[in-house]
Structure formats: C-alpha cells, structure tokens
Amino acid sequence: MPHIIDEAESLLQERGFKITPQRSLLLRVLAAQSSHLDVDEIYALAHAQDDSISLATVYRALNLFAELGLVDHRYVEPDHRREVFRLADGPEQHYLTCVRCGTRVLIRADLLNRMVNELVRRKGVSVTSACACFTGYCPACTEALRQAGTPPE
Amino acid sequence: MPHIIDEAESLLQERGFKITPQRSLLLRVLAAQSSHLDVDEIYALAHAQDDSISLATVYRALNLFAELGLVDHRYVEPDHRREVFRLADGPEQHYLTCVRCGTRVLIRADLLNRMVNELVRRKGVSVTSACACFTGYCPACTEALRQAGTPPE
DNA sequence: ATTACTGCAAAGGCTTTGCATTGTA
DNA sequence: TACAATGCAAAGCCTTTGCAGTAAT
Asked: With contacts defined as CB-CB under 8 Å, which chain A residues touch B144?
C-alpha cells in the first residue's frame, strides 16, 4: 500500500518537513505492519534494512509522525510505560493482552465508542482521545482453562 | 477510616510481611485520599510526616501493596507512563484528563463494565483488569468552549 | 545556499537494586 | 536471634537533547 506512504510524505512536505531516506524507510516499515509495535521493534525492522539508522532518529520520526496524526500511538498492557505505534489508517484499535500466552487480542473501537458517547451524554464532557487496555485471557486460553476446570473469573 | 488500614495490616501479617512504621504511614496517607496519586505525591505526603522515609521505600511499599491487591494502580493521561495509586476500597475508577485545565474527571466503572461484558460475550475472552484513560475537556471547559463558539469536536 | 535532519554520545526522568544497617517478630 | 525492611547511592531503562556534521530543497 504505497498510497498511504505517499499521502504521509505529501503531508510532511506541506508542513515544511523534509522527506529523508530514514523517514521513508520508517513509513514503509510501519505500513507493512497490521498492529502496533514499540520503538525497539520498529528500530529493529528499520535497522535490518539500513544499519546506519539511529535510535534517536526513530524516536524523533515517530514523535513527529504522531504530532502530524500520521501514527496512532497507545499504551498496552502489561508494559504500560512503552508506547506502541501504528500507521493511522483505518479505525482505532485497542488491545487485550493475554496473561497466559501473551497474545494481544485486537479490539475494534466500536465498543469503546459507544461508551464514549454515553460518557459525553451523561457527564457533559467531551472526549478527544481514548485509550483502553485490558488484561485477561485470550479466547483460546479462556477455553483451555474452562476445560481444565479452572475458569478464569 | 482506620478499618481499611487494619485490614491491610492484617493481610501483611498473614502473608509474612512486617508491619513497619513506614508501611503504616503510607497506608494512612493513602487512606486519606479519595483519588489516585503518583509516587511523588505520595512520597511528599509521607515525607511531611516522617522526613526520614526514603523514596525507595515508597516504591517498594507501593509495589508490595499492589501485589497484595491492597492498592488499585492505573495509568492516566497525559503522563501515561507514571503509575498512580489508590487504596483499593470501593469501585474501580477511571479518569478523563482535561487538556484545557488539567482537571481529572472521575469516571465510575459501571460504563466500562458494560463494555467489558460485551467484550466477553462477543469475543470469548475473559478480562481480569481494565484500564481506560480519556483525554478531552471537563464539563466546565466543554461549556466554556461552547459559549466561545469553539465547541470541541 | 539555507535550513532541517542525522548520528553520536551525553544527559534526563523515573524506577529498581545492592549493600550495610536497622528493626520487627 | 533470625530475617525482613530500610536508607543511601548507584545502576538500569527508556527517552530526549546538544552538537557538529550531512543532506534535502
């Protein structure tokens, strides 16, 4: 999907930022992913294709992309402190992290949006961004535990 | 509410941990709060009553309390990396942080619980803990912006 | 030719840890 | 008396930043 990359690069240019090989590479790395990655993962993928790229550049580029709205960044369990990034195309995603196998179960935004709407109506607030992180058991582990007679709460 | 503190100390004892002046002080500090505080805030409050307590002890105590389920710890916007703690009595709380005035609007768990239930039903997962953080505008700022003709999205 | 961007290495924040000492049980 | 807990200072981890050199427009 080079389309998204082109759009991203156009935006960079419009805003007076330069299109560098490093930024292009990072956009390609991000575009090849379907879910969120943390900075180290992104750095590793980029470094595999250009071993001169520095971690500082990755941080700077991701922060820039986030400011421009090019990436969706959020925090996931269990390592809540580390931000994860994903190219901002398509609907928002949230995650449930399985404590048994580590799988991240993707959760579309529609459920959360309903909650947000109710929040807005009942509390009189307005919401610009929402982050929901869940810890629990993925469907497979939930099933496995049920059969083992140790159903999770 | 010394009741909660007594229960907490009993649990410590049951599990083979010792009741030290520092831990008691921290429990009292936490019990006096109605919403989540970060480590520095807790340290400051404790230090005001015992200026020999160290930050390391605060970290160790809070981590222990969290393991024992004595405190509810979560992450809030905008400083997502910093954990905040609160004595675990009463229902879970989530927060919306106002980007205009910094207020934290408290959100009871019931709305989120409904979402969690639907998640469980639709996805076949099980959920052990949930964290929802919102960024937006508090009711007062929402109203102020509406009147200024700049309604937030 | 400008001006932004990069890589490097150092510095910053927050949190954890090693160790000798203190104190609880 | 044992062994856990504390305070201190150092180390760890992730992220940001200053700077001199490099490259995009």
From this structure: none
Nearest nt (C1') from B84 Cα? C14
The pTM assigned to this predicted structure is: 0.85
Q: Are A108 and A114 in contact (CB under 8 A)?
A: no
Q: Hey, how many other C-beta atoms are within 10 angstroms of the C-beta on A122?
A: 10
**Is residue A39's beta carbon less than 7 angstroms from any atom in nucleic acid strand C?**
no
Domain ranges of chain A: 1-88, 91-153
Q: Which fold has domain A1-88?
A: Arc Repressor Mutant, subunit A (1.10.10)
Q: From A113, which residue of chain B is nearest by alpha-carbon distance?
A: B115
User: What are the pLDDT digits (tens) for A131-152?
Assistant: 888 888 999 999 999 888 766 5
Domain A91-153: assigned CATH number: 3.30.1490.190
- A118 contacts on B by Cβ (under 8 Å): 111
Strand order in the sheet with B104-108: A104-108, A93-98, A126-137, B126-137, B93-98, B104-108
How much is the average pLDDT of A83-101?
86
Once rounded to an integer, what is the mean pLDDT over residues B118-123?
A: 90
